[in-house]
Fold this sequence. Notes:
- The complex is a heterotrimer of chains A (355), B (82) and C (333).
- By secondary structure, chain A is α/β, with parallel strands linked by helices.
- In chain A, 39% of the residues lie in helices and 18% in strands.
- Chain A folds into two domains: 3-58 and 174-239, HypD, alpha/beta domain 1 (Rossmann fold); 62-164 and 254-260 and 277-293, 3-Layer(aba) Sandwich (Rossmann fold), CATH 3.40.50.11740.
- Chain A contains 16 helices and eleven strands.
- In chain A, helix 1 (3-15) packs parallel to helix 11 (216-231) and helix 2 runs parallel beside helix 16.
- Strand 3 of chain B pairs antiparallel with strand 8 (185-186) of chain C, so a sheet runs across the interface.
Amino acid sequence: MNRELVKKLAELLKNRKLKKELRIMEVCGTHTAEFFKTGVKDLFPEGLSLIDGPGCPVCVTPNAFLDLAITIARDYNLIVATFGDMIKVPSSYSSLAKEKAQGMDIRIVYSPLDAVKLAKDNPGREVVFLSVGFETTAPSEAIAILEAEKQGIKNFSLLSCNKLTPPAVEALINADEVKIDGFIIPGHVSAIIGRKPWDFIADKYGKPGVITGFEASDLITGVLSLIDLLEKDEKTIKNEYRIVVRENGNEHAGKIIDQVFDVTSSVWRGIGELPGSGLKIKEQYSQYDAERKFPATPPPVKEHPGCRCGDLLRGLITPPECPLFDKVCTPENAVGPCMVSSEGPCSAYYKYWRR
Amino acid sequence: MCLAIPMTITRFEGNYAIATANGVETTVNYAMMPDLKENDKVLVHAGFVIEKLDEEQAREIEETWKEYYEVMEKEEKKNMPV
Amino acid sequence: MTKKILPGHGSGGKLMNDMIAGMIKEILGRDSIQIDDSAVLDIEADKIAFTTDSYTVTPIFFPGGDIGKLAINGTVNDLAVMGATPKYLSCALILEEGFGFDEFEKILISMKESADSADIKIVTGDTKVVPNGKGDGIYINTSGIGVFKKPLQRKQIEKGDKIILSGTAGDHGITIMSLRNNLNFSSALKSDCAPLNRMIESVIEKFPGSIKFMRDATRGGVASVMNEITTGMPFSVKLIEEDIPVSDEVKGICGILGLDPLYVANEGKIVIIADSASAEGITADLKKSEYGRNAAIIGEIDSVYPGKVYVETFIGGKRLLPLLVEEQLPRIC
């Protein structure tokens, strides 16, 4: 979008007089970070508040997953391949960064296919890829398995913690712990699943939502559009990201997910176990499933007693309301994942908003 | 974990496509978007093309918001005390 | 088979003496390197600047330079930003057993060329060899001495002063990062590694009383330099995002990897804080240098968030730009 127009729309948002206070939730963690980074949050008119949602995959991944990954890596002395995002996240007793310092072979990859290549280049060793992410990333991870199969690579497997977002949004609405007037809906999750799967928010719960992208222009138009829907009392899911998002999403990607994964229940930090909110590797591809390939018994899960990442991910508090924020919990010494993930709400507040 | 950037497809090499943005070239997998052509604008996430960009929609959205601004600006002026 | 570094090359025996006499001195300068235990230097100045830095980089050769060029220019620039004229360098080489002589020779030639182009003499040195597997091929330490032609005067930074960056941010760090991690990017991007002493001398000479602060924005990038000067101070630094020069390639790679170019290392860029009356003139003077072509005023000193650095985005929103805890990692979030 033309920059001059974006600046004008930014002015409109800044000067907008709301008819009443509005609380909107951005579901996606990338949105959380970009609202701060682009400066759009700084332009919010009086009475508009942004509640950070459960949409940072690193943040909602429970300790048990990293505990299992670390146990497998130790027990079987293998190579762990991961997105850079996971490196500093605390587990019950450690973190990948701490394990790496003690000699665990941990490689940062940019794409799941880089992990497949790593396995190909290290034929004598097992490579486990930590498959964390939402619908956006799931097809790439499925393709990694299909690619390993095609190339006959047997020393590659995936430890899956893949999650599906609409059930988490529905769980939050149902829990009814916090007042949310409307939703800013993840643009890139929707690129895969489409606009339609979000209709339940409007049809079943009578709340509007707007799908939007991640640039300043997208965030501004997304918020303006949501304010309009709320003020006109239109209960609908509007797609402001039609450049990318189709009604039914990317159907090829959907088929690839279905080919490799089955839908299963999954545990979300702070929210608990949600039926139909996770993906597990199909029986047919079990040789690529690290959980089945490398049986392991991690130590009992330990949570930091004061950590309120769970409450935060349910929208109950903002980061500065957590007693540990910027005191016990800092990026150097993070207690919970929301402080270390680049799209964690605590990380964003710590970095951009301690003014 | 949903960072993705717009790129343009420049050519195909075997099972991969070469995409470019800002003078940077990289290899992308397009198994999720098999009917790609050269010069298609796409969205790339973690080395994968996840969607095509619809340029017609881009123009339409920009036009809509331009009109939106003009309408709102007029209203604002109307509401301003003379 | 190509010749390799052996443990004997650091033993103090014939192998080492032959390498130093036949290669290192030959390339770095028979006229300048002194053979005694210390170099004896002629210096006419009341005050000198003295600095040291160690250089480790993987890969050793990269577009726009190599570890040798980096080791000379880095130390030259550290002297120059203090207002000193770089004069003499020491050079300590730590070589890994098995490192190729061909590569070593290329690095020495590159050091010599860089020293000549910065008009600085390498006067003393040392060579050590570590066992195979205990180093990354080669590490270099250089220390440098510079002299002050005139006593340095720097006035206090105050509200209204302008911040100038001598060119595009993040070129070196992104060049190196895109070579690591098997990221398979290709672009025309090069490291900005360069000797900045002449460019710096020129602005100091023309604007003697106006420059209040100068620093090369190496590790931690522009953001870290800015934080160094604001911490604990009654003023804040405002950077105007739209005015910060960033090359297209760096923008592209930072976009893909989710990095902020303001935190990325440079090896040929300086940040200057100057009074507002001279800022345009200083920028114009920097632009005359081949290393300052893209210089720009990128912000100013104000008091909106005392002790902090912040960025104003193009839509007029503000966000803080604090010191990072550690290096940024490529991410997909």
